[in-house]
Amino acid sequence: MTCAPTPKELSFQPLANGNPQSYFDFSRDGLFPIALPVSKKTVFIARDAETVRLIMTDPRFSLARLDPEEDSVTGTGYQSPDGLLRLDVPRIRNIRRRITPLFSERGIAPWRAEVEKIADVLLGELPHARQPHDLNKQYFEPFVVRAVALSAGITLDESSTLYDFSNRVLVRVEAPQDEARIGTAWQELYDYSSDLVNEKLNNPDDGLVSKISAELKKACFDDHEIVAAMGTVLAGFYTPYGILSVSAVELFQHPDVVQACKKDPTLWGRATDELMRRKAHFNFFLPRVAIEDVALGREEIFAGQVLLPSLHAAVTDPDLFASPGVYSAHRARARCNIVFGAGPHFCLGAALSRQWLQVSLERLFTTLPGLRLAGSYRDLEWQAGSISMPKQVLVIWD
Ligand code: HEM
User: Fold this and answer.
1) What would the pLDDT profile of 90-131 be if each residue is shown by its tens digit?
2) Considering the domain boundaries, does residue 215 fall inside one?
């Protein structure tokens, strides 16, 4: 009798160049077995765009029926069963049709001028004399905290508190004690959100927290459901931080792109989409479990099998993006939506994130003359996570 070899354990550690482990790369070889660090359960990584999209959009694959104890890869698995990322169709559709319009491009457009001011103020505060500066701590992080405060309609202090919560719940799961720690953080986030929701229902304003609360209340969702949905949104708000950091270091590698965008600022949109496609993306989506047997091309998936769709593979699939490793802002398929997911859980914050990325990068690269990395790109240190981001982005300018 031959025994199947024990699969490797999933690692969040990036390679020296900041790319994720090679099992997240595109492959035509079918599903790749990997063991989850805590439960040691074998799950299968999907590594081509078609399979990834199918898993994300086909109701035969479920988020709600994952077992949080066995199948959690990140802290999102430990959110309340009423949290958005644990709801299946039709419950998620029922909530989403009320709140998705609040996040539309048109809905968020009026904030753009204020977001530009946020960037300008922060850049104005960087003292020229004390270079180098770490853009992560001195620009990207405070930019996101302030941009969230603006769009959510909360104070800077509230936004800083929520940012801390976000950092405690959206983390990788690597050790048995993580579940209790992350569960506690979610509960604290819900307690905090509950007060915020009540305050906004009593004193409504134009911010997203107020509008989401009012929409869900009007549609007769109970308080628990409103707070659970709000918790997912509040935690998600801060994810652009890592994406911004990676986008910036990639732009330093492409001065020609910066020049082109400076000449024609309408190109910033395409440029940021391509930065996200090529490198500034999460490595994987959340796992899904098959709720019945499914034939996936040559593969047979059995009910109960858990799949981990590789986002990195989907955006570097050569059938979709010719020469995927090459940065090209002139691709026919310029807008790479798959970086924000697909199907019923498509990211609510996609338009906001695009706005923040475009504005913050444009202001950064057009305000500080001769801006460059203080060291070499090769020497950047990358930190582990569901997105690999540089630990520091030290820069100097003229
Ligand atoms: C560049 C920044 C961002 C990226 C790359 C990103 C990416 C994603 C992805 C890939 C998903 C789907 C996960 C899955 O189905 O497995 C998702 C869901 C979600 N995102 Fe984002 N996100 C970003 C920013 C934001 C922001 C600013 C918000 C704030 C509103 C947000 C809120 C959410 C929520 C609430 C969900 C769950 C939606 C649902 O289950 O219906 N995200 N995001």
Assistant:
1) 999 999 999 999 999 999 999 999 999 999 999 999 988 889
2) yes
